[in-house]
Design brief:
This protein is of the alpha/beta class. Helices cover about 35% and strands about 20% of the residues. It has a domain of about 150 residues: 3-Layer(aba) Sandwich (Restriction Endonuclease), CATH 3.40.91.
Length: about 230
């Protein structure tokens, strides 16, 4: 998202809450996804304090749009976890220690009861190429060793939402050079926002995959898209 001056934390929290309310996301789930506290029915404060809400605004806006598009297909949000709650540590068979911390984890449930899980990464335009490659190396070990079976009932899909086309090219180039394929899709904010006006938005043919020569794809879902 375009950079703006930082607002007071309380004002930004209200903005993030508004996005979640717009998609009618339950308060308990939105608190986990946005990473801040809420008061439950018994008066207890529940949730986690945000580390840096401003950096998360882009991915949170995308998640809300994903939920809205999912409901158009009669699907529903199962859960939404922030970066701290999404962290997963493991040791590869070769003894390498790996720490993964997606910006968000989102679970969707469609009307036939089939769940789809996504690991979401939001990359700002000035993202460092070396950091992107290091992040992808962790995901390579994660999928190679089937570590995802410790967290999910089915293999999750890795989604990169990029602030602009420059960092999108960096991510695609890094994915193309990996020795092992991972189930990854890449898009830009502009592409999913434009698609939202003329089609199924985040679930439409807005995604690029490694070595796709520029063709756009829709996510693999357990339902048919009406495009």
């Amino acid at each position: 998202m375009a950079k703006q001056e930082k607002e007071p934390r309380s004002a930004l929290k209200r903005g993030l809450d508004y996005l979640a309310e717009r998609a009618a996301i339950e308060q308990e789930i939105s608190a986990r996804g946005l990473g801040h506290t809420y008061v439950d029915d018994s008066g207890r404060f529940v949730g986690m304090s945000p580390q840096d809400d401003w950096q998360k605004l882009g991915i949170n806006a995308f998640v809300v749009q994903l939920v809205l598009n999912t409901r158009e297909l009669e699907g529903e949000l199962v859960d939404w976890l922030n970066a701290a709650m999404s962290e997963h540590r493991f040791v590869t068979p070769s003894g390498r220690r790996v720490r993964l911390s997606p910006d968000s984890v989102v679970g969707l449930d469609f009307d036939d009861g089939v769940q789809q899980w996504f690991l979401l990464e939001y990359e700002e335009e000035q993202a460092d190429g070396a950091e992107i490659r290091a992040k992808l190396a962790g995901y390579r070990h994660y999928y190679e060793s089937s570590e995802w079976t410790e967290q999910f009932p089915a293999q999750p899909t890795l989604l990169f939402v990029c602030e602009g086309s420059q960092v999108e090219r960096q991510v695609l180039r890094a994915l193309s050079r990996m020795s092992t394929d991972v189930p990854a899709f890449v898009t830009t904010e502009r592409r999913y926002l434009v698609s939202q006006k003329i089609g199924p938005g985040t679930l439409g043919r807005i995604w690029r995959v490694p070595r796709s020569r520029g063709f756009h794809y829709a996510l693999k879902l357990p339902v048919e898209l009406a495009e």
